[in-house]
Amino acid sequence: MVWFVGVGKSSLGELRSRGILRGFECSGETELIALVIGVGNHRSGGAIAQELMDHFGGLPGIGSATVEELMAFEGVGPAASVRLKASFELGRRCILSIREGAIRKVRAPEDVAALMVPEMRELDREHFKAVLLDTKNNIRKIVTVAVGSLNAALVHPRELFKAAVGASAAGIILVHNHPTGSPEPSTEDTELTLRFVKCGELMGIELVDHIVIGGDRFISMRERGLIA
């Protein structure tokens, strides 16, 4: 149910009050978006929120939209678009923090996939992340080492091992996504993995695995036999 398409500040005030009294989990998705946006110029937050939901196909689409794409809608100015992006980023980090707390030790590639696939499957650019491990394969830290284009990301050993040294990591699991949806490693992925294995041997920091994510699927380079 849409409570306030075509209405203004009073309905937003009622939603705020209802959220405070009953909790915002009782609010619908469109209502929550409207609360973040507030009231646009001559348009209600509810009308704008519904338009955004329809155009982008729901929350994942809105969360992936750029500030510029959001500002293309009447009533969504710089402040509202930044608030939207910030709210989605906070939600993403909250989910990641909970997930990291649940998975603190890596025993198999499936552990890394359970941790990283939900975060990386919807990304529209290649992201390289490093799961940094201690000597007992406990996760010390997860860092982003490179962000690229639709089908490529330039990741340098310097950036990867700088992060590992800074975290006093004993091992690294490299993780990157394929926005195409196929997790099949490319020739460049294979060459990159072999290069990082050699760098790790020189640095005394083991490349434990390199996992490629495509949609909800993943491939482990170690299970493929590329990493001994």
Number of domains: 2
Shape: elongated
Biggest sheet: strand arrangement: 2-1-3-4-5
Question: Which percent range describes the beta-strand content?
Answer: 15-25%
User: Regarding CATH, which class of the largest domain?
Assistant: Alpha Beta
Class by SSE composition: alpha+beta
Low-pLDDT regions:
1-10
CATH superfamily of the largest domain: Cytidine Deaminase, domain 2
CATH architecture assignment name of the largest domain: 3-Layer(aba) Sandwich
Helix-strand pattern? HHHHHHHEEHEHEE
At the fold tier of CATH, the topology name of the largest domain is Cytidine Deaminase, domain 2
Number of helices: 9
Distance between the termini: 56 Å
Based on CA atoms alone, the radius of gyration comes out at 21 Å
Describe this structure in words.
- There is one protein chain.
- This protein has 228 residues and is an alpha+beta fold.
- The protein folds into two domains: 9-96, Orthogonal Bundle (DNA polymerase, domain 1); 105-220, Cytidine Deaminase, domain 2 (3-Layer(aba) Sandwich), CATH 3.40.140.
- It is built from nine helices and five strands, in the order H-H-H-H-H-H-H-E-E-H-E-H-E-E.
- It has helices at residues 9-22, 29-37, 45-56, 59-64, 67-71, 78-102, 109-120, 157-166, 187-203, and strands spanning 127-133, 139-147, 171-177, 206-214, 217-220.
- It has a five-stranded mixed beta sheet, with helices on both faces.
- Strand 4 (206-214) and strand 5 form a beta hairpin.
- Helix 2 crosses helix 3 (45-56).
- The longest helix has 25 residues, at 78-102.
- The termini are far apart.
- The model is unreliable at 1-10 (pLDDT under 50).
